[in-house]
Write a structure and sequence with these properties.
Strand content: 15-25%
Shape: elongated
Distance between the termini: 70 Å
Strand order of the largest sheet: 1-2
Number of strands: 4
Amino acid sequence: MFSFRSLVLIAAVWLLVYGIVRLRRAKRSPAQQQALTTKMVRCHYCGLYAPEEEAVVADKRTYCCSEHRDQDIGV
């Protein structure tokens, strides 16, 4: 099946990849970290996803901008 040398090589590669991933996560700035955890909502008019805090809400529907809200409502 697998030789001892193969298992050691697989473990070494796994540890290397794991270490690189951990280092990249540690280098993220707080703004990048928040961007990864920001809730996104879908525009009812065009389907674009926008951050929840920037979305426009009308009649329990979310929109990416006020223009799409107005076009959908017919203003």
